[in-house]
Amino acid sequence: MGKLKNKPNEPMHYIVKKMLSSMFLGLLLASCCFAQQNLSISQAIEIGLRNNYQIGIAEKNKGIAQNNNNFENAGRYPTIDLNVNLSTDLADQKTPTLFLQDIAYLNNGLSASIDVNWILFDGYKVNINKKRLDELEKESAGNGRLVVEQTIQQIILAYHQALIEQEYLETLKEVLDLSDDRVTFQKRRKDYGLAVEFDVIQSQDAFLNDSINVMIQENTYETALRNLNLAMGIDNMSKKYTLSDELEIDRISGYNYEDLRRKMMTTNFQLQNLLIRQKLANVERRFQESNRYPQIGLGTGLIGGVSAFNPFGEDPSGRPYDSARGNKVHFYFNLSAKYNLYDAGNRKRGIQNAKLGEEIAQLTIDDFKRKLTMQLKNTLETYNNRRALLSVSNRLVSNASKSLGIAKSKFKAGQISSFDYRAVQLSYVNASQSRLKAVFNLKNTETELSRITGGLIR
Which residues pair with 326 in a beta bridge? Predict the structure, then answer.
């Protein structure tokens, strides 16, 4: 970008105006050449849920848990094995004590078997394992909901932060226009002998300060948009949007603590996950207790084989040895029972540890409920306080806006000094900034209330 040229002795006021005009013109041209996408908060959430890597990982883990959750994996059905064995034996046998003292032969054999093993009873372990798989699938789904909830909360806050920075930028531009108008007005007064050079310089200083504030806020707004892209999982961090939603301040309503508490106890996702882990601890205890029962199994199968015995040479009478062929089919069936009489106390220790794990899970839930209740109370009180602060901030902005209009008229009528007019301008900026902070803080608290009560995910 080339340097801005200015005429000799051209006031700094005009140089800054050219710089700002060039910046705004560049932004305007960029928006014309690259049409910005309208983005609502619901669209931002949809994009973020689609792009979030952690959500993708959680979905894959959920798929694994779903694949594992079946009675086959729990051990209800028998196992069936097919075994095939091919053997070849080539030998040269010399045994003086036998009739055939010297013989060489080739023996080939092929055997196959189908073995079926089925556990008929093992202390109800099949049903217990199936219950464990059910809870593991629920836990995986719950972990996925937690990731989705966290992502939605981050996007909501990032979107509203961008809206806040955008509105504050508009406020600063409004004050900058007033400062520009003030410089022009003071220069006219000086031309008519109603103001001195000091008045012009003061108005130019105010304009320069307001210009700096606008430049800084432009960068802050761009940063907020980049943070929004990050929250949505957009790789192009510099992608810009036209935020189509507005700060819906007037629609914010109050909450009832008991209603929130009842909802929290039934729909808070962290609490739901802890309840699932408690059920898993209960399943583990039942699994350990099932070791007290005997195990009864059924085994059956079919074994078949063929063999060929081919001797070499001749017998003592000079005749060649005859080859032999054979086959066999064997079916077996057995019923087995096994019971552990002594295992050095391992079974007893396993049951005791499982019971302690179940108690720990219950204590964890009780502790989390207590902390969650306290968090709800604190957040609700903070929400009510910030709601009251926003009401006061709205009145301050309304009064500051009226004062600014009156001060502008009085300044042009010569009824107040430039210092007083500037003080009113700064009061308006400060009031607007305080109001926007109050809006964001209230939105932040409202979003936290929705998260605690499980309201972010419909």
Answer: 307
